[in-house]
Design goal:
By secondary structure, this protein is α/β, with parallel strands linked by helices. The chain has helices at 50-61, 74-85, 101-115, 139-160, 176-180, 186-205, 225-229, 231-235, 250-261, 263-266; strands at 41-45, 65-70, 91-95, 118-123, 164-173, 212-216, 273-274. The chain has a seven-stranded parallel β-sheet with strand order 3-2-1-4-5-6-7, sandwiched between helices. α4 (139-160) links the parallel β4 and β5. α1 packs parallel to α2, α1 (50-61) packs across α9 and α3 (101-115) runs parallel beside α4. It starts with 40 loop residues before the first strand and ends in a 10-residue tail after the last strand. 50% of the residues are buried.
Length: 284
């Protein structure tokens, strides 16, 4: 558990793990799998770093092979793949921009090509850009946020469904901001509300195939996206407003995805939202 407060820092988007201070725990080093996902095939968007990396490695420790998408950080993606391979499982990183419908289709096709099908789909990739005032929110930024965070999820799910096994699992990453809003991340919070509602609708649509659709909505988590988007003012002491007085590490969030991915653990869960928020009371 990371009890050190982040220092003021900044780096270019989409961010890298190595320069972060403190270093996030995102490699699941002390996690022991027990075969919960043995032989399963996972497609994970945004799997190169942060929560996505921790989820990819946790799945490997539980016996799953993965294909994961990432935007542009090749070294980060390679490190995730190396961590998975050290567990004796397969991981293939696929570079692409989920704001592009053709890139979403390419990612799914690579997953099917590499794995032979998809049992678990994790929709995690997202972007955010804070604004001081609502009137500063440009149409360009709004469209970019929704293209990545919402349209990318729609396109990837739609493309993946014909290749998913009945009885599989779809897990969508929401956010505490999607539950209670955020005055400086208005477009991001709105996009997260959209995909969290999508998970409810899909859970009903896919009930007859036995595909469970659930959502993980974390509170503040210390990932490369934070210094890459919030800048020095937003990173210093990031997460200290949380009831626990700190941000989570990605390793603390990844087990929620294992829970929803494993039929043994969550066979009677669909249309649910699990919110690891460090004690923040949620709306509704």
């Amino acid at each position: 558990m990371n009890d050190r407060q982040p220092t003021a820092q900044n780096q270019p988007h989409p961010g890298r793990t190595e320069p972060m201070d403190p270093q996030p725990r995102d490699e699941m080093r002390d996690y022991e799998g027990r075969g919960l996902l043995s032989g399963r095939r996972a497609l994970i968007t945004g799997g190169d770093s942060g929560i996505g990396r921790a989820v990819t490695v946790a799945f490997a420790k539980e016996g799953a092979d993965s294909v994961f998408g990432y935007l542009s950080e090749d070294a980060e993606a390679q490190h995730t793949a190396d961590l998975v391979q050290a567990e004796g499982r397969r991981a293939v990183g696929v570079r692409g921009d989920l704001a592009d419908e053709s890139d979403c289709a390419h990612l799914v096709h690579r997953a099917v090509e590499e794995l032979g099908g998809i049992d678990i789909l994790v929709e995690h990739a997202a972007t955010q850009t804070p604004v001081e005032n609502f009137t500063d929110l440009t149409t360009e930024q709004l469209r970019r946020t929704f293209d990545v965070n919402v349209m990318g999820v729609f396109w990837t799910v739609r493309e993946a469904l014909p290749h998913m096994s009945d009885g599989g699992s779809i897990i969508i990453t929401g956010s505490i901001n999607g539950l209670r809003g955020n005055d400086s991340l208005i477009d991001y919070a709105s996009s997260k509300s959209a995909v969290m509602n999508l998970s409810l609708s899909l859970s009903q649509v896919l009930m007859d195939r036995g595909i469970r659709v659930n959502c993980v909505a974390p509170g503040p988590v210390w990932t490369p996206l934070i210094p890459a988007t919030l800048g020095e003012g937003g990173t210093e002491g990031f997460g200290k407003q949380d009831p626990m007085g700190r941000a989570a590490d990605p390793d603390e969030i990844a087990p929620s995805y294992v829970f929803f991915a494993s039929e043994r653990l969550s066979s009677f869960y669909t249309g649910e939202t699990l919110a690891p928020t460090g004690g923040e009371i949620q709306a509704g």
